[in-house]
Amino acid sequence: MLGTLKSTIEYHADVVIIGFGAAGGCAAITAHDAGVETILLEKQPQAKHYSNSRMSGGGFHSPSTDGDFEAIKAYAKAMFSGENLPHKLEGEQPEFSDDLAHAWATYAPQNEAFMRGLDPQFKTFSSAGAAFADFPGADRAGYACLRSTYIGEEYEAGQIGSTKDAAKSQKEAGEAFHACLLTGVLSRKIPIHYDTAAQMLHVNDEGAVTAVEAMQNGQRIIYRARRAVIITSGGYEYNTRMRKAFLDGPGKEGWAFYGSPANTGDGIRMALKIGAALCKVGSVAGRVICAIPERRLGLKIGLNTSSVGKPNEIVVDNLGQRYAAERRITKDPSRYIFYKEALQFDTVTLTYPRIPSWMIFDSTLFNAGALVSSAAAAYNDIDWDKGNLNALRNGWILQGATIAELAAKIRAHPDNRQRMDAGALVQQIETWNRYCTAGHDPDFNAEPNTMGAVNNPPYFAIPLYPGGPNTKGGLRSNARREVLDWDDQPIARLYTAGEISSVFQFVYQGGGNLAECIVFGRIAGANAAAEAPLNAAHVQQAAQGVGSAIR
Predict the structure, then answer these.
(1) Helix, strand, coil proportions of the chain in percent (round to 5)?
(2) pTM of the shown model
(3) For 528-547, how does the pLDDT look when each residue is reduced to its tens digit (9 = 90+)?
(4) Measured distance between the N- and C-terminal CA atoms of the chain, rounded to whole angstroms
(5) How far apart are CA 298 and CA 295, in angstroms?
(6) What is the 3-state secondary structure (H, E, C) of 136-184?
């Protein structure tokens, strides 16, 4: 029996922001600094506030301020849309790609300075340049990807330990990024309403968004926005219906994600109800990752499997055949688009031979340390110890005394559906070991330093599924970050930024999601703050000196 709702209460602000991740935080800070009253709504409780931004590796793009503007713009346009690549069949977003790239070239070089301005104790170090070396502008952009830390020491992506419970001075990666952002929000006394789930957007007779309806502990709350609402609520990784509707392949059972379970597509659902359009909604930042049988919201829990692409392992399909150089699965930039290769559909057998794929490895790799990211395991409350023994006991890792015995274990796994060919897998391992002895992989040109024989029994296997940290497709929006309808007309006073409306609609370079949150979160915040107040009594509070953030 449903309980009776408490009486409705109301809050008023100039700008109401749905979702406190990197995009929401940057938008809130920018709107506040423009002189307007801002409220942040976050569905997670404060004690369990783990956004995808916080759970990330903490990397973000910040090209050199000395980089060539046109080169940065060209490089960004190639990633966002691919329109300036001669081999590209069509542009992903030709209506906005030039303005999006212009905005990126204008704001992205400021990313490091913006973050450091929030907290002088925040530190960064450079980890990469232009991942797509042959893209236009790559050689002159001064492109750089930085990583976040308060410790001041460099760390390797995928091998970071979780510092979620550490003091700020000891945080690194996404924890450091989030701590810096939180410092900026709290120092401005921007209200954060935790444990508050936005459910509906209100529009007036002219179709302008004027309020957000939310629930908090059974309490219905209306947040009235005098100027605008900004949706930064992330993707739909943990929404089964959206996954089935939008993702390629088996949307529920064929995918796994290791981001925040709070990402349930709320912003997409709310915006669709008032006429918003979608764009590249099936896009994902992903590869193939381990998934354990335990469920969250009825879905597999994924774990960042950083051990893929190291010596003493190979990745095969359900039949026991390799289909790519393993390091491509975890190396930037292919690691964030590799999921497309895992989605191959056999039109003869009507099966997905690579869902799941199988990581096959020996005792050398098993004993080398945790096979998954400790941070991903910690955030998901998964007890995956450094020695992998608990994972083995729980059956998350299969074991066999011989490769043939391991193949039989895989064949008995329900997701393999009895397709593993023991003879094929034995032959594949023998072939791989010969390649390792010769130091050359003629099949897929694996990097020599990643090659190591699989010959130290016992042997192990882990199922790998398409997935990763987050989805990227969602709301269609322009360079001003206005949410658009199906005629590409802006829905008045509604803005967006972040994963829910990612600009990376062609290809993706690691660190791009946090970078777009900074760039387009700031743009959304500035443009929302620049809206004239709906209430004439607040005309005098119009943001001074805040013009359109996009030309």
Answers:
(1) 30, 25, 45
(2) 0.94
(3) 999 999 964 333 333 333 33
(4) 54
(5) 5
(6) CCCCCCCCCEEEEECCCCCCCCCCCCCCCCCCHHHCEHHHHHHHHHHHH
